[in-house]
Write a sequence for this structure.
């Protein structure tokens, strides 16, 4: 029997304030001050290192607000300009107005549709006649009783979904901060298309009542559900220099950041070692005003105090695997590294570096301002859960200052669309890659948990990969062990588990096309589905609790090809497992049998595995 399949969404009604035109930025203020000093408009671009177009547009905005006056040969500052010259960022060119919006958030794909209701009566017309059918509450009609809900790679009957939704609604406050980050970014982008600027969005209330009550009908039956997706993924182009691919790369980059950071440096790491902390303090610039080393997991109640260098923070309320570095340079540009590297444990100053497989992406606010703002907001959301109010206030103050500085400048730079995704969207992306990728599929995770059953989604595949597939991890949890017993499931147990999954993996293609490999030095957390790359610090093959996780998802064919090449290289370096040995023996056996007499064949076939290996080694 055919069922309609629904993709769950939540409807958020949010209030916000906006302005019709952007406020003045720090750049506008600098232009005004330089003109006041008698500098010619023509040389200002060279003085401040910005394109001529940006400086001309800034001067034009100042003219329109009567901050400047144009005479026959030059621009002169007016009395109004003089009075606002040193506090231009506080000047609003248009009054702040009130607005509201309905935002439908897709919990599988992390996409959001924004419908504006503005104070001036400007309203977005909903031209799609099926809109209210698509977004009506679940279980409103009899026909929907036969439908199914697809959530996190699992199907739920309507009755079971009702119970599941109640549990998710009860736990909504745990993910509320991350949801706000995504909604604010979507609202900002939507207003930008109307040449409006978001001034502030009111926070979501506690215990949200509309959680998971709405859905988007995209498929007419279960078999088609996985093929259909409303995936809003930005196109981004990263170069090889934008990626850190080894422990050595990460250490060299951090050493550079420690010296180039101008006023602020924040290093968030899940784990730490005293040796790494000492080296960071030794290599850090002594002029930094705001410098912090923040530990994510503080199970052992570690306390270190440093008279010089960044302040060490290990708050009892932190419980995060976050691995992020944020700093600003002398030009006011904010830089971010996000990925899998434990900065506070693995940092080394020397060239003697153990190169494991760690991957992070590098961002800067000139190119990725919207994404960096979302990252900072997500970090703030986690810091807000700290138990020590003094530490919390210090970190939030620095983070919010950086966020505001970027927000004031972000409209003058060419910025990519927001790449930010969090929690359940990342785990869903892993399932999508395993289930739907056509050309390439890579999933890198430091750990795998058998109880999560990550490969069950392979049962829905209908075609093999055309190019390459690799799922890799270093250690695993058995279905019966706790998270403290990770080593009990390593080695032979993991190899046996991999062998048990080969039938499922065969839907991706033969072993030379797609495989699962245990790689001892695998520490990266990466997902590649065709040309779509997701980089994160989340172990998507083992994590049940994903509420604090976030990452970036974007379409970048060149980066995807680069990671495919890395996957092929890693696979070549993996020692042949028992299954591979068996295939090699079988191929060798078939070649040898053709040259043997019947009596020799009988002796050959009765050999045990060890005897067979000895003989084959002599023949090779």
């Amino acid at each position: 029997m055919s069922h309609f399949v629904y993709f769950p969404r939540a409807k958020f009604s949010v209030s916000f304030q906006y302005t019709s035109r952007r406020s003045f930025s720090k750049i506008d203020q600098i232009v005004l001050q330089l003109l006041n000093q008698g500098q010619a408009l023509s040389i200002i671009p060279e003085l401040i290192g910005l394109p001529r177009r940006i400086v001309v547009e800034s001067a034009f905005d100042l003219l329109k607000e009567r901050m400047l006056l144009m005479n026959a040969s030059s621009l002169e500052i007016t009395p109004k300009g003089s009075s606002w010259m040193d506090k231009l960022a506080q000047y609003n060119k248009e009054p702040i107005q009130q607005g509201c919006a309905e935002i439908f958030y897709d919990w599988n794909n992390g996409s959001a549709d924004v419908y504006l209701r503005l104070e001036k009566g400007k309203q977005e017309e909903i031209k799609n006649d099926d809109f209210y059918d698509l977004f009506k509450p679940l279980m409103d009609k009899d026909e929907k009783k036969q439908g199914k809900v697809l959530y996190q790679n699992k199907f739920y009957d309507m009755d079971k979904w009702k119970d599941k939704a109640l549990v998710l609604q009860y736990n909504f406050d745990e993910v509320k901060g991350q949801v706000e980050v995504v909604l604010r970014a979507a609202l900002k982008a939507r207003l930008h298309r109307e040449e409006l600027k978001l001034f502030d969005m009111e926070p979501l209330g506690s215990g949200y009542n509309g959680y998971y009550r709405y859905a988007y009908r995209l498929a007419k039956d279960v078999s088609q559900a996985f093929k259909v997706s409303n995936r809003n993924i930005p196109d981004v182009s990263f170069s090889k220099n934008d990626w850190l691919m080894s422990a050595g790369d990460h250490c060299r980059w951090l050493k550079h950041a420690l010296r180039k950071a101008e006023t602020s440096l924040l290093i968030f790491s899940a784990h730490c070692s005293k040796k790494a902390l000492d080296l960071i303090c030794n290599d850090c610039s002594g002029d930094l005003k705001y410098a912090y080393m923040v530990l994510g997991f503080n199970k052992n109640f570690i306390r270190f105090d440093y008279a010089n260098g960044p302040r060490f923070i290990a708050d009892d309320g932190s419980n995060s695997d976050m691995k992020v570095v944020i700093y600003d340079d002398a030009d006011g540009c904010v830089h971010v590294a996000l990925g899998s590297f434990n900065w506070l444990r693995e940092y080394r100053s020397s060239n003697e570096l153990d190169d494991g497989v760690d991957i992070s992406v590098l961002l800067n606010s000139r190119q990725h301002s919207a994404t960096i703002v979302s990252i900072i907001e997500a970090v703030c959301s986690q810091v807000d859960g700290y138990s020590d109010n003094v530490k919390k206030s210090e970190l939030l103050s620095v983070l919010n200052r950086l966020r505001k500085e970027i927000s004031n400048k972000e409209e003058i730079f060419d910025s990519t669309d927001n790449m930010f995704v969090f929690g359940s969207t990342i785990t869903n992306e892993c399932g999508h890659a395993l289930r739907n990728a056509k050309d390439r599929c890579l999933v890198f995770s430091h750990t795998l948990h058998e109880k999560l059953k990550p490969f069950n989604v392979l049962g829905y595949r209908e075609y093999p990969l055309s190019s390459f597939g690799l799922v890799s991890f270093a250690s695993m949890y058995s279905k019966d062990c706790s998270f403290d017993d990770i080593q009990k499931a390593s080695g032979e147990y993991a190899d046996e588990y991999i062998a048990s999954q080969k039938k499922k993996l065969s839907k991706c293609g033969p072993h030379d096309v797609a495989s699962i490999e245990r790689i001892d030095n695998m520490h990266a957390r990466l997902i590649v589905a065709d040309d779509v790359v997701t980089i994160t610090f989340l172990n998507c093959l083992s994590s049940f609790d994903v509420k604090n996780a976030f990452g970036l998802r974007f379409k970048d064919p060149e980066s995807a090809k680069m990671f495919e090449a890395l996957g092929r290289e890693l696979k070549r370096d993996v020692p042949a497992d028992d299954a591979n040995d068996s295939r090699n023996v079988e191929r060798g056996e078939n070649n040898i049998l053709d040259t043997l007499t019947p009596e020799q064949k009988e002796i050959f076939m009765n050999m045990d595995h060890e005897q067979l290996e000895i003989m084959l080694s002599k023949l090779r």
Residues 421-573 form a domain with the Endonuclease; Chain A fold (CATH 3.30.870). The longest strand covers residues 5-19. Residues 124-135, 139-143, 577-593 have pLDDT under 50 and may be disordered.
